[in-house]
Design goal:
This protein is of the alpha/beta class. It is built from ten helices and ten strands. Helix 2 runs parallel beside helix 3. Belongs to the aldo/keto reductase family.
Length: 276
């Protein structure tokens, strides 16, 4: 059972990844991202998730320097963007990202989306970075089961993580089972469905029972379904609140009620149908 903000899951290569972290999607480069990362680190977070396309890697790097947390205690994720996919271009994109972050190595490097005809070459570049010790773990984002099956056919190294849209209205049951069988750790982006779930009656009732907020109930559900989660916020109070989920447990009944909210409904693009 996940008991604290520093608890980790062990990836299939033995690397330990925190169950809980801060996402910085749509957080502005400059003071906003520097502050939100520093608030999180001060609150005890150790995992920060960014991406080249977010345009805020430099700010994340600055916050990491200023925060003075030992590098080995941090878990930093970034991602290669679609336009940079392909073997050589991925290696170049990685250099750009690591330089902006000001780090010697990245903890987790992900393929951001399954760009058709490109992601296998991109994966070869990630395997090289992994073998060269530039990254501690490699993975993918927004991959459906069929994308993973296709990738696994020619991969030397299995992805360690698949980061996908995941929340009570999109509980990804088939993908979850597949990843579990393959020892690929599932990770949630948009766990709160961009705020759409915060006034859901079922969740409100469960929250009231535990004396918690709806957001806290959803984030606790993520952990109890064994999915790593990285809620985003720029407000210090919210960052602290989001992490206040280690002093209660959802019952089997609570879990079933949340599970019943699934509608296979996305707020983000479908990985089978995106044009960027």
């Amino acid at each position: 059972m996940v008991k604290s903000l520093t608890d980790t899951t062990t990836l299939h290569n033995g690397v330990k990844m925190p169950w809980f972290g801060l996402g910085v999607f749509k957080v502005e480069e400059g003071q906003e991202v520097v502050d939100s990362v520093k608030y999180a680190l001060k609150a005890g977070y150790r995992s920060i998730d960014t991406a080249a396309v977010y345009g805020n890697e430099e700010g994340v790097g600055q916050a990491l320097k200023e925060a003075n947390v030992a590098r080995e205690d941090l878990f930093i994720t970034t991602k290669v963007w679609n336009a940079d996919q392909g073997y050589e271009s991925t290696l170049e994109a990685f250099e750009t990202s690591i330089n902006k972050l000001g780090l010697e190595y990245i903890d987790l490097y992900l393929i951001h989306w399954p760009v058709e005809g490109k992601y296998k070459e991109t994966w070869k570049a990630l395997e090289k970075l992994y073998k060269d010790g530039r990254v501690r773990a490699i993975g993918v984002s927004n991959f459906h089961v069929h994308h993973l099956q296709d990738l696994l056919e020619g991969a030397e190294i299995k992805p360690m993580v698949n980061q996908v849209e995941y929340h009570p209205c999109l509980s990804q049951n088939e993908l979850r089972s597949f990843c579990k069988a393959q020892e690929i750790q599932l990770e949630a982006w948009s766990p709160l469905m961009q705020g759409e779930l915060l006034d859901n009656e079922v969740l409100e009732e469960i929250a009231k029972k535990h004396n918690k907020s709806v957001a806290q109930v959803i984030l606790r559900w993520d952990l109890q379904t064994e999915v790593v989660t990285i809620p985003k916020s720029v407000k210090e109070q919210r960052i602290i609140q989001n992490a206040d989920i280690f002093d209660f447990e959802l019952s089997q009944d609570d879990m079933s009620k949340i599970e019943a909210l699934n509608e296979d409904r996305r707020v983000g693009p479908d990985p089978d149908n995106f044009d960027f």
